Amino acid sequence: MERLYDSKQARDVDRLTIEDCHIPSVLLMERAALHISGRAAEIYDNCIKDNFFVKNKKILAVAGSGNNGGDSVAAARQLSEKNIVCDIYVISNNIKNSLKEQLDMASSLGINIFFDCPDMSRYGIIIDGIFGTGLDRDVSGKYKTAIEEINNSGAYVISADIPSGISADSGKILGCAVKADETLTFGRNKLGMTLYPAIDYAGNVCVCKIGFPVFIEKQVADTYFLLEKDDINSLKKREDNSNKGTFGNILIVAGSENMGGAGILSLSSALHGGAGKVTMCTHISNRTAVLSSVPEAVLKLYDTQGTEAICDWIRDNVNNFSSVIVGPGLGTGKEAKSIVHAVMESSEVCTVIDADALNICSDELFKNKNIFLSKRRKYNTVITPHIKEFSRLTGLNVSEIKSDIVNVAKKWAKRLNVILVLKDAKTVITDGYRVIINNYGCNGMATAGSGDVLTGIIANAVLSTPKYSHSDTEEERKRINAMQLENVSKGVLLHALAGESARDENGNNSMSATDIVKGIGNVLK
After folding, report:
1. DSSP state, 375?
2. At 14, which helix (H) or strand (E)?
3. Backbone phi and psi for residue 205, each to the nearest 5 degrees, phi listed first
4. Which of 39, 91, 32 shows the shortest CA–CA distance to 67?
5. pLDDT tens digit string along 495-510?
6. In this structure, are residues 216 and 17 in contact, taking their beta carbons and an 8 Å threshold?
C-alpha cells in the first residue's frame, strides 16, 4: 500500500526535517524545484521538437506568498540557467522570507517578475505555486482571478505539491482550483488528491523525493493508505497439503421469499474467491434457484412460519463458521429483523453486514439501540454501505458525507466499533483510526448486485485473520484488528480488479454483477 499524508502530516514532516535534522528549508525548496524545472524542461524540449509551441512561447511561474511560491520561483531560476526563458508572476504583496530570498536570486539573474497579472495566453507552460497543502479556506479575490486565468490559458500546467485550491484532506475544491495536467507532489502523495473531485484536477501525479529522512517520516503516524495493484498478491495462498476445511466455511444469511438473487451473487463470489465451503441460510422458496445456479452450495432452509426455529439454529451454529454474511435480499420485515438480531447477538466470528441488514440496523440506531457495540465483537463487524445506505445509517445527507468522506467515515467507524467499507466512486475503508482508499474499479460496476458480490469476496478475504481469544492481550487484539482491516481492503481491491476484468471483457455499459464474479478468477489467476 502507498502511504499518504494529510495536510498536518505534510507540515509535520517538513518541520521535523528542518528542526531535528538541521536541513534548511531552502535546501528542501531547491530539491523540490529541481524536480519541477527538470520536468518543465523535458516538456518544453519535446514541444519545441514537435513544433507544439508557436514562436516566443515561454514558461510562467506563478507564486502565492509562501513556500509553494518559492518552489515555483526557484524552478524558474533553474530553467533560466538552461537558457529557457521564464517569467514570474507574484500574486501577493505580503510575501514570506523564503519566497523573498528566491525572488532576490531570480531578480539578480534578470528574470522578469510581474506583480500584476500578465496575459497568460502568451505562455506554453505554467508552473502553479500559488497555494500548498495548508489551504483551508475558499479562494477569493486576485487569487481566484489568477486561477481562472491559468485554467483559461491553454497552457500545459504543472502544479507544485498540490493543485492550488484543493483541500489536501478532503479533496474538496475550495471555491476554485487549478486544473493541472500533472502534479509533482513531495515526500508522499496527499490524501485529498486520491479523492473526488480533486482527482479531476490533479492530472498525472508523480511523487518526488526531496530529502525527508526515513526516520523522520517514521515519526509521522501512518494513518492514510492507497491500495496498489500488487497488494492482491498477499491474499492467502493455497497449500497443497490441505482440504476444503483448510479454506474456511462461510455462512450466508440471505434471501427472503422469492428474493434469492442477491444471496446467490454473494455465494458465487465467496466460492470463486477461494472459500472451501459456503452454506446459505435462505427461504425455502429460493431452493431451486440457488441449487441450479450454484450446485456447490450447502443449504439451510426455513419457511415464513419457521422463523423462530431458524433463529435458534443460527444462535446454536453461527460460531461454527469461519465468517458470516447477513443481509442480501433478506427484506426488512418482522422475520428479517428477528434473523438479523439472532446473527448479531450470537456471532463472535467476523460478520459482514450489507443491504437489508444495514437498513434494519439503521432503524435500531435511531432507537438508540446500537447493536454493533458489543465488546466481544470489537472490530469484528464489517459494514458495507453505499452512500445512500450510509446516509440512512447516520442521518447525514449525501452532500455532507461526500464533502468530507474520509473524516466522516473515520468518525462513524469509531462510533459504531466496525470496519466500514463506504462504497462510492472511490471506496473508503476504515476502522476509525486508519484509512485505506481504493482507486481501482470502473463505472460499469455501478450495477445491481455489484455490492452483493463484494460481500462474498470480503467474507472470504477475512478468513486468514486469526480469531479472537478471550485471553488475548490488548496488543494482540490491535495486531488482529490491523490484519482484519488490511484483509477487508484486499477484498475490496479484488472486487475492483474483477470489475476491471469484466469491463475489459464486456465493456462498461454491458457488464453485470455476474460478469464481476467471473472476473475474480481472471484476477487471482
Report:
1. G
2. helix 7-21
3. -100, 130
4. 32
5. 999 999 999 999 999 9
6. yes
CA distance 227 to 347: 29
Output the pLDDT for position 379.
52
CB 427 within 8 A of CB 495: no
User: Alpha-carbon Rg of the chain, whole angstroms?
Assistant: 27
CA distances, 207 to each of 27, 172, 210 (Å) = 18, 20, 10
Report the half-sphere exposure of 286 (CA within 13 A, side-chain side).
29
Which of helix, strand or coil describes residue 410?
helix
Proportion of the chain in helix, strand, coil states, percent, rounded to 5: 50, 15, 35
Q: Report residue 375's pLDDT band, with 50, 70 and 90 as the boundaries.
A: very low
**pLDDT tens-digit series, residues 441-477:** 999 999 999 999 999 999 999 987 777 666 678 788 7
In order of 17, 98, 217, the CA distances from 21 in angstroms are 5, 19, 12
Measure the CA–CA gap between 101 and 63, rounded to whole angstroms. Answer: 13
Is there a contact between 279 and 252 (Cβ–Cβ < 8 Å)?
Answer: yes
Tell me which of 305 and 263 has the higher pLDDT: 263
Beta-strand runs (E) in 209-276: 224-226, 249-253
> If you search the block for the grid coordinates 497443497, which residue do you land on?
240
Cell of 428: 473508503
Within 10 A of 243 (CB to CB), how many other CB atoms are there?
7
Q: Enumerate the β-bridge partners of residue 298.
A: 279
Q: 266: which 3 cell numbers?
A: 454473494
Amino acid identity, position 400: E
- Tell me what pLDDT residue 367 has: 65
- Scan for cell 536570486, then name that residue: 105
pTM of the model: 0.93
CA distances from 127 to 40, 71, 144, 182 (A): 8, 9, 16, 10
Burial class (CB in 10 A: 0-12, 13-18, 19+), 488: buried
Please tell me the predicted confidence (pLDDT) of residue 363.
Answer: 81
Residue listed under C-alpha cell 497449500: 239
Identify the residue whose cell numbers are 421469499.
Answer: 257
Q: Which residue has the cell 495486531?
A: 479
Query: What secondary structure letter does DSSP report for 378?
Result: T
Q: Pairing between strand 277-283 and 189-190?
A: unpaired
Cell reading at 366: 435511531
Strands 277-283, 249-253: pairing is parallel
Q: For residue 51, what pLDDT band results from cuts at 50, 70 and 90?
A: low
Question: Using alpha carbons only, what angle is made at residue 459 by residues 328 and 293, rounded to the nearest 5 degrees?
Answer: 55
Residue type, 375: K
Burial label for 466, CB within 10 Å (0-12, 13-18, 19+), is: exposed
Name the burial class of residue 524, with classes exposed (0-12), middle (13-18) and buried (19+) by CB atoms within 10 angstroms of its CB. middle
Question: Which region, left, alpha or beta, applies to residue 50 given φ > 0 means left and ψ of -120 to 50 means alpha?
Answer: alpha
Q: Which three cell numbers stand for residue 425?
A: 466512486
* Rounded distance between C-alpha atoms, residue 446 and residue 509, angstroms: 10
User: Edge to edge, what strands does the sheet with 86-90 contain?
Assistant: 112-114, 86-90, 58-63, 123-129, 156-160, 182-186, 204-208
